[in-house]
Design a protein that fits this description.
2 copies of one chain form a homodimer. Chain A is built from 26 helices and 21 strands. With 717 residues, the first copy, chain A, is α+β, with helices and mostly antiparallel strands. Chain A folds into 2 domains: 347 residues, Beta Barrel (Thrombin, subunit H); 275 residues, no CATH class. In chain A, strands 1, 2, 3, 4, 5, 6, 7, 8, 9, 10 and 11 form an 11-stranded antiparallel β-sheet that branches. In chain A, strands 12, 13, 14, 17, 18, 19, 20 and 21 form an 8-stranded mixed β-sheet that branches. The two termini of chain A are 33 Å apart. The N terminus and C terminus of chain A are likely disordered. At the A-B interface, helix 9, helix 10, helix 11 and helix 17 of A face helix 9, helix 10, helix 11 and helix 17 of B.
Amino acid sequence: MEAAGDVENERKRSMPNSKHRLRKAALAGAAGVLVASAPAFADEGMWTYDNFPAAKVKEKYGFEPGQDWLDHVRLSSARLAGGCSASFVSANGLVLTNHHCVHSCVQQLSSAKHDYVQQGFLARTKAEERVCPAMELNQLVSITDVTAEIADATNGLEGKAYSEALNGAMSGLEKSCASGSDVRCDVVTLYSGGRYHLYKYRRFQDVRLVWAPELSTAFFGGDPDNFMFPRFNLDAAFVRAYENGKPAQLDHFLRWSEEGAKAGDLSFTSGHPGRTDRQLTIAELEVQRDVLLPRRLIYLSELRGMLTEFRNRGPEQKRTANGLLFYVENSTKALGGMRNALVEKDFFASKVADEQKLRAWVAEDPTRAATYGAAWDRMAGAQREFRASMNEYYFVEGGNRSPWGFQGDFFGFARTLVRAAEEKPKASNKRLREYNDANLPAIEARLFSGAPFYPELDEALLTFSLTKLREALGTDHPFVKNLLGKESPETVARKAVRGSKLGTVGARRALYEGGAKAIAASNDPMIVLARRIDADARAIRTRYEEKVDGPQRVNGGLIAKAKFEAYGTSVYPDATFTLRLSYGAVEGWEQDGKAVAPITELGGAFERATGEDPYALPPSWLKAKGKLALATPMNFVSTNDIVGGNSGSPVVNRNGEVIGLIFDGNLPSLGGDYGFDPAVNRAVAVHSQAIIESLRTIYGASSLVDELLPVNTANGR
Amino acid sequence: MEAAGDVENERKRSMPNSKHRLRKAALAGAAGVLVASAPAFADEGMWTYDNFPAAKVKEKYGFEPGQDWLDHVRLSSARLAGGCSASFVSANGLVLTNHHCVHSCVQQLSSAKHDYVQQGFLARTKAEERVCPAMELNQLVSITDVTAEIADATNGLEGKAYSEALNGAMSGLEKSCASGSDVRCDVVTLYSGGRYHLYKYRRFQDVRLVWAPELSTAFFGGDPDNFMFPRFNLDAAFVRAYENGKPAQLDHFLRWSEEGAKAGDLSFTSGHPGRTDRQLTIAELEVQRDVLLPRRLIYLSELRGMLTEFRNRGPEQKRTANGLLFYVENSTKALGGMRNALVEKDFFASKVADEQKLRAWVAEDPTRAATYGAAWDRMAGAQREFRASMNEYYFVEGGNRSPWGFQGDFFGFARTLVRAAEEKPKASNKRLREYNDANLPAIEARLFSGAPFYPELDEALLTFSLTKLREALGTDHPFVKNLLGKESPETVARKAVRGSKLGTVGARRALYEGGAKAIAASNDPMIVLARRIDADARAIRTRYEEKVDGPQRVNGGLIAKAKFEAYGTSVYPDATFTLRLSYGAVEGWEQDGKAVAPITELGGAFERATGEDPYALPPSWLKAKGKLALATPMNFVSTNDIVGGNSGSPVVNRNGEVIGLIFDGNLPSLGGDYGFDPAVNRAVAVHSQAIIESLRTIYGASSLVDELLPVNTANGR
């Protein structure tokens, strides 16, 4: 599945700094003079709406989207704050997105009596529509270029003064733009600072569930079919935006194409790709390919085997391990796809050629050479440091998330409590960044959430991860000696988890509020463990930040500037979880020498079904089979350039109508982090006809069909 | 551990064809004229005794082993037929080898009452020495060059006539050489046929266990320390060769160096490296690095996680899964080390340079170009085919061992029975090669062995491997559809294992003897499963042999011939599990920027011990601690070039004395399959002093010490 969440986390973990990218591209109109010798890749790009290459689309597909078309599709697009995309599909605030984007809402609305995840949900009237707790929709109302304002505010400044002025200017622009609680404004940094744009959104905070099918059809095929094609998934759902307790009234929404996608159709996707790293240097890509991705894959694969078998301990263990197992399996496939892309010789050679071209262009001019010339070698030096310190850093600190060596909720609480006690007394800007004032609310929300957790799983995870830590750093590493002393990973984990009181919110709150004194006095074994290793862990982090992260940021920033000087906005910026438009066509590809057809049919789901998980169709499908038009198109692929975060994006034809709904990418598209290969990268979508046919024939959701297809319904179809 | 068995199997699986290698090397004396522009790597090489570069050793180390020295060390060396090396260390047939080389003997001699694996074994008198079932020792008596005889016999022949003449000539030479049951003769193919040598061995078939310490000291540190250094392992054992019921009397044996290895010492290892693939082309190495090794590592890692957690089902499950888990962990480390070697840019670049040099030399001469020039591109073509068919082949057929998609003993029996029924009626040379007359006895031995096996583990393994097969080939693959039908991997495995009668020797014998008719009539669900997929599996195998294996053999053979034409015997041949001598020095290395000292001390074992597995020393050690000389050298590393099969090799100084005992290599040495990096590849040995000190102070084995150190003991130590 293409939700931004999990895969994004994996990606973020791999690459700490966000920069932008460019590739073989047309000559920039700017002062840069890097002559384009290679054509732009067909259909590549996640373009901002204010810089869409409409002329290119016309050249290839004979259709040039005009400003009205672009405004209409933009205003019909929506973002789900949790990490997905969506679109308005009726004047009455109806919103189309993926089932996996509303899965947590469906779960929250469920009870022991009504398991809507398993049974599906349908509101037959508006009164039956149920508020999704904590769901927010954003509609992009306008884009304003504020590059000049930012430049004015930061002109001549450097270092800390520069960052402070930059942050101040951004906050000021955002505040003066956001006039009320129904407006959200963000200054978006594009091209690593080449451009600053002010994005103004209309906010919808009352969002209600309208329809969600059973998980067994939404995620039909489970992990074996995840990121694969042919597919037969009804990964679709409807919610509705409300304002003042009534369905929101919208001037712009996408009309439904009853015919939907056909092979060869021009297709647009309008959505919010989460993050790409297409600008990484060769030195960084080599480390990804040779070191980081393989190591992570091996770690996750072993964890996957452990969790799969852990589920056999009993039904409760199965239930508690399922969520993590899904995450691990999804990540393993995603990272495997990323590695596959990097070991493709032609793809990697194209990245090398791009870098050599840019470096040659930099070297041509003495000023450019003096400014940027050394950045690549310094980046390569940072990567050598990364190789040397990677194990320590990832196993002990873990980047953006829990360290590879200390998995489980209990340890996470303990480290947070130990560190918060030390950090909170400091000035906000002197703290470890995750403890500054802006981030404390998130930390407190996690600490004091009553979410259930599972000591038996926690102990298994901590045992596993401590064992892997010892293996990675070696038994002789001083950190390992201090950590384990004369005990085994099993013993350390067992004592720390079984003896800990951190399972209760009260205990955590007492330690948090008690601060350094309470932490120092605690004899909770998990606190003792976190306390004992914290000085060593901080030293490892500091070393990493000085030797790896800092040099990566500085030199990555320089390379990004050189690129923007060369290419300007003739290329698209890296993804930033903001609205982008991509174009392409409904088209299969060749896999292992065989052609993969671009469109599947409803009937294929029945052929594929075995009755056993994950190929068991829900009873509603089996019951309706005789009445269904089995030749109805079900899922399809297109050449649109998407990544995680695009889940829920509408696929739109030249008339601005919905012809499908993005829910996944194929296996090769997982290389989309690094670049786009038009030969094999494919977006995977639910066909618009499949949604209508299932609503009508399986789910009996006639009012929903009427809302989507008002004219046709009047025709009596 | 460096036993040839497991790791060799992994290596064999990866590379079906055996060829030879060369590298930057001195100019051959032969007609070949490839000028050496680069120096030979220091200390590299597993040299045959009749072509040892004594002058090179003198140049570097100031000592030139003469013919007497070489003859003495060769005649003091021994091979354990099961896949290890050894040496004679007294005139009365005493033999030194590794504990892990006699582990299965120790286990076979154990009973419920006496677990010698856990408690160790010591024969205080010769009468207490116990016969090791099925252990055989070989001593290399002579080497005769029979290249001319083979050439005469095969002159002018091609294709099948050539193979038949070659096999006939080899058998003839072996038969006329082997005069009795105490002699064994093998024609050894060196340099992929550049040389044929007749190796004559004296056989010792009565071998008795003298001393083996507890597994917990022999394999101290378990998997975490496996392939690592510093180490503290007493991986040593003594057996004794008997003739006519009496200890064998030997003219040649290695005297014991009481002082043993010191840092900087010149060191020789005399042993039987099992197999290397240092001649692989770049196209083959790329596939290893990018595709095969990563995929296998991911598979084994997931299996490792599954087995680790499977052990938690209960004590019996732990016992039954331990052996496989050891194999999986050992393989994972070994294959990881091989991958690490290949992603080292400098190492890989040296392989590329070697190939380019040879190709340039071939291209220089029209005759050579016509003969060999196309081989590399054809090999690259075979590798493209390999990438396309690898998953099918390994998951369904599996090369030399059980297929990745069908793990477990039950399926192995079923496939063997199904295929034997079809193959046996054919002429021997028309059968699948593992069913020809020469191989049938091994197949029957396996089928009719009463070795225990474990249905619960078998079912878990089959479930796991069928799930991986579906994942690798995809749910839509015709093979998968035929295999699973409408069932899940769990269901197929459960039905096939639980319903099968193949657990009894009687059932297997009846099916084997009943032939095709019995197989066709069987409704044993495991037989039904193996039968159902057999036609598809055979088709996959045929395709692989035609597209990949055949072209690899042909073009690999051509490239090997070109190399021999260029370099002759100025380089060493790839390992062939025959006796080789390597030279080097006792020397640490630099790891992650830190110097690793070359020698550890006995006391380090106590510091490292935690009392918890795998760092629990046996009671005998804890009891003796106060009396032990803790500064006694324990383990050490040297630059000798070794691989699996060298386990048990003596480390010998310039006086021909035992200064240590090879038992492992360090992590970088696992790249030894592909080449030798003198900067980091290290052999790991038990120090001769550690063996004496532990025999004397821990094990009270004074008569053994007297036999090893007769003079010194007379001196009162």
